[in-house]
Amino acid sequence: MAKGTVLVVDDEAPIRDILSFYLKRAGYQVLTAGDGLEALEEMGRSRPDLIISDLRMPGMTGDELCKRVKSEAATRDIYFIILSTLDGTASRIGGLSLGADDMIPKPFHAQEVLAKVDSSFRLIEMQNEIKRQNRELTTFQTRVREEMELAAALQMGLLPKLPGKAPGSRYTHRYLPAAGIGGDIYSVLPLPDGCTALMIADVSGHGVTAALISAMVKTSFENQVRLGGDPLAWAYGMNEDLCRSTLPEQFATAWLGHLEPASNCLRYVVAGHCAPLRIVGGTRGGLQRSEVLRGKGFMLGLDGQLPFADYEAEFLPEDRLVLYTDGLVEVEREDRSMLEEAGLRRICAELPGGAEEAADAVITQARAYNHPAQFMDDVTLVILDRNA
Questions:
Q1: By three-state DSSP, how is residue 248 classified?
Q2: The whole model's pTM is what?
Q3: Phi and psi for 382 in degrees, rounded to 5?
Q4: Alpha-carbon gap, residue 207 to 15, rounded angstroms
Q5: Mean pLDDT throughout 231-235?
Q6: Fewer CB within 10 Å, N side or C side of the chain?
Q7: CATH tag, 159-386
């Protein structure tokens, strides 16, 4: 089997013959042409791996052939060596500036040409391997991108459909994953008794793994709610589920709530998550008072024996609940400051009356505060409004 194909281009037949003899003896397949035009015709029949061409020839010269070969996408990767009677550094630079890969001065020694050809084919082999690996990498990147897009679409399908309604309430969200797919999730479940179960969670990490665990969190929450009980029972059940199903270094912060419209009571558990804001009369719009629904609790998935606590708050008709993940308020600006809870309270002190407009206003003002820094973590914002 030939080591490769070499096209020898020279207007002198003896030079073609001597080069052909030594190259064939070394194991190469050899094609020949008397000038550049003949070389192009030969290349139309069989593509060489390497071209050795004289510089000065009648018809199409070696430099014209080199320019032609290197200017076309189908042939630009063919290794090109120029033979020239011109010697010296200036001549070599001139030849390489044409696009040639190497240059051999005339008169030449056959062994020198063979050494150059052998060295060139080692480079050709390495270049081909790099191209092969690049093709594989491109294919892999395309497959990963397609799978990420599919995973992102599936994750979006896990979020409640908008506009959302629950007994006596309406809600909307803004979901901004940091990498196309993230670890934030929330759920709003209307219950048969007219109450509403609420959950927002933030899984450690980013990407596909975090998204997978966020789906587990949502499934676990919905299963616990179906089993009955209250937010405290849900927290214990979800903690057991995550401890059993995830690695030790994986966890989730969460806020779990149960809204009973008849009593205007909101019972909730804080599992290491950002405390939501209750905006008194927030659905009326304009300047309103806000309060933080504080509480303490461990993150879910750390240890199956960790305790949790539940809390109660009043949640009246026309009140607004602002649930969010820490990516919204923990963007570090150039001056090292962050929006934090206090800054979010300032934004939420005066919002439009509509939930959609309010959500847009929060994101817009948070971006303006952070500028020019961008959101680097997953951001989820949920606005839930009690009807009048």
A1: coil
A2: 0.70
A3: -125, 125
A4: 62
A5: 97
A6: N
A7: 3.60.40.10
